[in-house]
C-alpha cells in the first residue's frame, strides 16, 4: 500500500492559523486518498534540540495528540504515534548521518536562523536535526510528505540522502515527494494583519488558540485590528485587517467573499465581528468538547498504542533491511 507521512513538533498550542491552513487539509486528505496508508507523528525528539521543560514537553505532546484526533483525524485511517516511542527513528538517523556531509547541513536555512538566535550554545542535535527528519521519512517509504513551505529544503536534503544511499547500497529507499498545500488559506495575525498568525508571537492578542474559552475567542475578534472605513469589503492589499477576518469567516462558513460582502452591505464592523466571534466559537466548541473527553482517556492511549505498534513494525523492518545492505551485524535471512 502506498503511504503518506508527516510529523508535527510539540512546541506550542495550536492556533486557528495552523488549524485552518493545515490540519483541516489533513482531515480532508484522509478521505480523498483512501488507498494510502497514513502515518502522523508528534516529533518530540525534534522538540528537544532546544531545551524544553519536562512537564511542558509531556503536556504539549499529549495535547497535540488529543487535538489532532479532536480536529477529525480518524484513528482507523491514520496511524498516530509519538516519535520517541519508536526507537528505529534515532537508530536510522545515525546511519543517515554517516551518509550526509557537514557542508550540506551547514547550508540549511532553518539551522542558520535558529543557531543565530540561540544564546546558550548550539546543540549537535540542532545541527543534525535534518538527518533525523530524513530518518523519520525514509523508514516508511512514503510517496508523499505534506509539509509547509519552510520544510521544503529539509525534504530536498532527504531526497539527496535517499538517492545517494540508493546508489551506494542498491536501492534501499523510496525517494519521497513533498506535498505543499496550494489552497490552505494563510491566516494573519489579529493585531498585525500583514504578518502570519504564529504560535511564537509574544502578543497574545495576535491569535486565537484552539483551546481558548468562548469569552477570549470573542474578545480577540472584537479587538482585531481593522481600519477606519467601516465597510465589509475584501481588499487584501489595501485593507489587510478586514480581509483577514473575512478569510477566517469564509474558510469556516464556506461562504465566498462576495456572499459575505452582500450579507453585510450597510452593516458595520461591530456586528460583523459579533457574528464572526460566534462562528469561530461554534467551529471550535465541538473540537474542545472532544478534546476534553480524550485528553485523559484510555481511548487516546489506545490510539497512540496502536499507532506505535504499527509504526514499530514498519520501521523496524526497514531498519534491519538497511543494516543488512550496509553490512552491519550478522546477516539476517
Ligand atoms: P508550524 O506549526 O508553524 O510549523 O506550521 C504547521 C503547518 O501549519 C504548516 O504547514 C504551516 O504552513 C501551517 N500554518 C502555520 N501557521 C499558519 C497560518 N497562520 N496560516 C496558515 N497556515 C499556517
Ligand atoms: N521538521 C518539521 C517541522 O518543524 C516536523 C517534522 C519532523 C516532520 N519530522 C518530519 C515533517 C517528517 C514531515 C516529515 O515542521
What is the CATH topology assignment of the largest domain? Answer: Rossmann fold
Largest sheet: 3 strands, parallel
Number of discrete helical segments: 13
Morphology: elongated
Bound molecules: adenosine monophosphate, tryptophan
CATH superfamily of the largest domain: HUPs
| Element pattern in H and E | EHEHHEHHHHEHEHHHHH
Fraction of residues in helix: 40-55%
What is shown here, in short?
With 333 residues, this protein is mainly alpha-helical. Helices cover 54% and strands 8% of the residues.
How does this structure look, described?
By secondary structure, the protein is mainly alpha-helical. It has 2 domains: 2-180 and 298-326, Rossmann fold; 204-292, Tyrosyl-Transfer RNA Synthetase, CATH 1.10.240.10. The protein has 13 helices and 5 strands. The chain has a 3-stranded parallel beta sheet with strand order 1-2-3. A two-stranded parallel sheet has the order 4-5. Helix 4 packs parallel to helix 13, helix 9 (214-222) runs antiparallel to helix 12 and helix 10 crosses helix 12 (269-295). The model has no long low-confidence stretch (mean pLDDT 94). The protein binds adenosine monophosphate and tryptophan (TRP). Residues 17-18, 21-22, 148, 184, 186-187, 196-197 line the site of adenosine monophosphate.
Amino acid at each position: 500500500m502506498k503511504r503518506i507521512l508527516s510529523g508535527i513538533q510539540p512546541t506550542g498550542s495550536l492556533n486557528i492559523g495552523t488549524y485552518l491552513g493545515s490540519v483541516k487539509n489533513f482531515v480532508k486528505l484522509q478521505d480523498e486518498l483512501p488507498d494510502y496508508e497514513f502515518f502522523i507523528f508528534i516529533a518530540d525528539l525534534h522538540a528537544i534540540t532546544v531545551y524544553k521543560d519536562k512537564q511542558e514537553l509531556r503536556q504539549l505532546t499529549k495535547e497535540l495528540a488529543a487535538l489532532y484526533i479532536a480536529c477529525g483525524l480518524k484513528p482507523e485511517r491514520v496511524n498516530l504515534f509519538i516519535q520517541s516511542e519508536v526507537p528505529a527513528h534515532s537508530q536510522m538517523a545515525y546511519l543517515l548521518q554517516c551518509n550526509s556531509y557537514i557542508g550540506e547541513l551547514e547550508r540549511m536555512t532553518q539551522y542558520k536562523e535558529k543557531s543565530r538566535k540561540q544564546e546558550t550554545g548550539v546543540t549537535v542535535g540542532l545541527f543534525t536535526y535534518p538527518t533525523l527528519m530524513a530518518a523519520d521519512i525514509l523508514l516508511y517509504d512514503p510517496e508523499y510528505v505534506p509539509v509547509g513551505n519552510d520544510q521544503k529544503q529539509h525534504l530536498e536534503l532527504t531526497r539527496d540522502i535517499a538517492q545517494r544511499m540508493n546508489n551506494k547500497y542498491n536501492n534501499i529507499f523510496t525517494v519521497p515527494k513533498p506535498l505543499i498545500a496550494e489552497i490552505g488559506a494563510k491566516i494573519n495575525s489579529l493585531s498585525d494583519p500583514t504578518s502570519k498568525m504564529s504560535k511564537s508571537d509574544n502578543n497574545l492578542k495576535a491569535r486565537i488558540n484552539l483551546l481558548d474559552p468562548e469569552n477570549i475567542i470573542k474578545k480577540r475578534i472584537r479587538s482585531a485590528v481593522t481600519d477606519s472605513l467601516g465597510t465589509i469589503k475584501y481588499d487584501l492589499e489595501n485593507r489587510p485587517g478586514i480581509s483577514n477576518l473575512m478569510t477566517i469567516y469564509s474558510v469556516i462558513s464556506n461562504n465566498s467573499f462576495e456572499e459575505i460582502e452582500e450579507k453585510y452591505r450597510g452593516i458595520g464592523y461591530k456586528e460583523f465581528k459579533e457574528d464572526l466571534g460566534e462562528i469561530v466559537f461554534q467551529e471550535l466548541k465541538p473540537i474542545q468538547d472532544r478534546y476534553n473527553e480524550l485528553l485523559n482517556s484510555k481511548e487516546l492511549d489506545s490510539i497512540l498504542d496502536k499507532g506505535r505498534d504499527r509504526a514499530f513494525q514498519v520501521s523496524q523492518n526497514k531498519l534491519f533491511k538497511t543494516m543488512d545492505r550496509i553490512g552491519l551485524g550478522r546477516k539476517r535471512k
